[in-house]
Amino acid sequence: MIHKIKALYDEGRGLGIRAIARQLGLSRNTVKKYLRMDEAAIAHQQSDRGRRQRLDDHRVYLVHLLTTFPELSTVKVLRKLREKQPELVMSERTVRRYLRRLKETVAVKPRRHYEPVLDLVPGVQCQVDGGELRGVWIGGVEQVVYFVVFVLSYSRLMYVALSPTPVDTETFIGMHDAAFRYFGGCPEECVYDQAKLVVLHEQYRELELNQRFHAYATAVGFRIHACEGYDPESKGKVEAGVKYVKHNALYGETLADWDHLQQHIAQWLDEIANVRIHGTTGEPPRPRYERDERRHMRAYLTPAYLAQERLAQETRQVDKTGLLSWKANKYSAPLAYQRARVGVREAGGQLVLGDLETGQEIARHDLRRGQGEVIKNTDHYRDKGERIADLEAAIRHQLGAEPGSTLCGLLKQTNPRIYKDQLVGLNALLKRHGMPPVLLARLCDRPALTTRQIRDYLDAYAAHPERLNHDLGALGQPPPLGSESSGLIRYAGIARPRQEVDHDHHH
């Protein structure tokens, strides 16, 4: 190792101390120490064979393990060594001592620093996470079971809520209501990952919360704590709980129907999960909760508005034409909700449609008392941002009424079947690049036009604006080869096949 350091340093003509340390997996202090040693000191150290240890032959490999996987246990390091050297005879204690000394000189990755978790304070924290398990036999059919696990951090008391369909906001809120009633109280905060049911968007750790769920949390009186993205260790108790539910409660079970599954989970919670000796606390969760935590939980009652909405709101399937049925009539839903389920309720003589995911209102219709009527809002059947009339108006606004209409007419005449898409593309081009007046005049004189050709003209003009400005009048006739205006062939030939344009430009 000393010779390697000396060779890489090459008396100051080679690598620097930092580079040598990084390449050999050493600390910079170690590199400096060996570089300061003279030949006599090096010879003395190498002649002192008593200093050499059996694991020195594997030092490079051990340094690699420590720098790449700094959290590896001694047991696993020893196992990896024996996989590489089956004849190696070494005790775990010897390896541990060697690794401890090695870490004092090797620059390993810093260990992660964990914030203290409030698991020693009863009544403060509940960790919440969802999961799913496929292939559960219910009624003789393999089904997917969706569930959400609630674990109180202090006592480890657990509750599991089930759903036959993916969990939406209303279901998620209902699961919280059931969990808090099961616990007999509400904690001060609940910890979540960044699922859309809780956090809609995060930037710079600033969270945009699901307003429907946030309103429920505010009404109940608990704080929402969202972990950083992709950080399961911040809520490790419930992560372990999700695995426990999958493998201990659900996997391998055969159930007659959904009611039987609900009964099975309730029995599993009361007779297994919450009465077992917990591996961390050393106590069963239920007695620990009753003795130390229940009195610290906040009182919980289902919010009155939530109970009323549950009575009032139903769900309906929107068909492929954007209509849903309500009391013998059909009502329209916005285009984005075709073939989806929405919440439906009556309020003040109107039918109110809501997004089941966010709880936000998406449409209202006046209720009809007849039968067989179809009530439509025409705005539900068009995308206002991309309607042809709106796009044409936007283009005329940017280019002027007459040239804008001329350009739109050329696009429609050239590609009538994709006219709307052409308008969308042109509108985007104009917003991004604008349109030079001299180039607009040239485009309006063309017999046919596509948005792609307009883009090519804009690119050519951006590269050589002086050519079009100087010789616009000569565009109709090709200039002599080698003349000042020969570059205008780039404009005149944009509509030609690409190889012809390149050929002319080359000359």
Write the CATH fold name of the largest domain: Nucleotidyltransferase, domain 5
Spans with pLDDT under 50 lasting ≥5 residues? 48-52, 109-118, 230-234, 471-507
Content of β-strand: 15-25%
Query: Portion of residues in helices?
Result: 40-55%
Count of the domains: 4
CATH architecture group name of the largest domain: 2-Layer Sandwich
What would CATH call the homologous superfamily of the largest domain? Ribonuclease H-like superfamily/Ribonuclease H
The average pLDDT score comes to: 78
CATH class descriptor of the largest domain: Alpha Beta
Distance between the termini: 64 Å
Structural class: alpha/beta
User: Rounded to an integer, what's the Rg over CA atoms?
Assistant: 36 Å
How many separate helices? 21
| Largest sheet, strands/sense/barrel | 6 strands, mixed
Give the strand tally. 15
Task: Write down the overall geometry.
Answer: flat
Explain what the structure shows:
The chain has 507 residues and is an alpha/beta fold. The protein has four domains: 2-105, no CATH class; 125-296, Ribonuclease H-like superfamily/Ribonuclease H (Nucleotidyltransferase, domain 5), CATH 3.30.420.10; 313-381, no CATH class; 385-506, no CATH class. The protein is 44% helix and 16% strand. It is built from 21 helices and 15 strands. Strands 1, 2, 3, 4, 7 and 8 form a six-stranded mixed beta sheet that branches. The protein has a four-stranded antiparallel beta sheet with strand order 9-12-13-14. A three-stranded mixed beta sheet has the order 10-11-15, with no helix packed on it. Strand 10 and strand 11 form a beta hairpin. Helix 14 crosses helix 15, helix 15 crosses helix 17 and helix 18 (451-463) crosses helix 19 (465-471). The longest helix is centred in the middle third of the chain and has 16 residues, at 258-273. Residues 48-52, 109-118, 230-234 and 471-507 have low confidence and may be disordered.
